[in-house]
Amino acid sequence: MKSSHIESMLAKVQKLCEQRAVRLTPQRQLVLRLMAEQKSAISAYDLLDLLRISEPQAKPPTVYRALDFLLEQGFIHKIESTNSYVVCHHVGEPLHTSALFICDNCGLVTEYHAEGIDQQLKALADTSGFTIQHSVLETHGTCANCIAK
């Protein structure tokens, strides 16, 4: 993500936190910034290594607490299949279904708002009386850049 996009996203996140009466601590903001600077998904321990550059005393619970907060607020997504995390590109859009395309070659994660699919999931859930709180679709394959190589 470009520096200007990161700053814009962080400002939007800060505003949403104020509206929700939750606290975006400097540590949470730093974790989100570090994630936004990545070209692909990142594991909690890789985040910890990056965080220790500016905060040498940081421990795993520090990162996990920040990730839990960011997940709860909808600012990031967890990629269950790789146990990694990626910034949500639809910050501020409540209850959207994200389709994540994950390149198994280079690790690039591209997020799309899964319009249409979310309506189908809701219809399926409604038939069984199920209430969807969150859904992320993960699709693995090869990105166009890797195919071109």
Overview of the structural elements:
- The chain is an alpha+beta fold and 149 residues long.
- It has one domain (3-148): Winged helix-like DNA-binding domain superfamily/Winged helix DNA-binding domain (Arc Repressor Mutant, subunit A, Orthogonal Bundle).
- It has 6 helices and 5 strands; from the N terminus they run ααααββββαβα.
- The chain has helices at 3-20, 26-36, 44-54, 60-72, 117-127, 144-148, and strands at 76-79, 84-87, 98-103, 109-113, 136-141.
- The strands form 2 sheets. The protein has a 3-stranded mixed sheet with strand order 4-3-5, with no helix packed on it. The chain has a two-stranded antiparallel sheet with strand order 1-2.
- α2 packs across α4 (60-72).
- The longest helix has 18 residues, at 3-20.
- It is globular and about 50 Å long.
- The relative contact order is 0.13.
- The model has no long low-confidence stretch (mean pLDDT 92).
Q: Tally of extended strands?
A: 5
CATH architecture designation: Orthogonal Bundle
Structural class by secondary-structure content = alpha+beta
Q: Count up the helices.
A: 6
| Count of separate structural domains | 1
Mean pLDDT across all amino acids: 92
The major beta sheet can be summarized as: 3 strands, mixed
Q: How far apart are the termini?
A: 23 Å
- Provide the helix percentage: 40-55%
The amount of beta strand, in percent, is 15-25%
Which class in CATH terms? Answer: Mainly Alpha
The CATH homologous superfamily = Winged helix-like DNA-binding domain superfamily/Winged helix DNA-binding domain
Order of helices and strands: HHHHEEEEHEH
The gyration radius over C-alpha positions equals: 16 Å
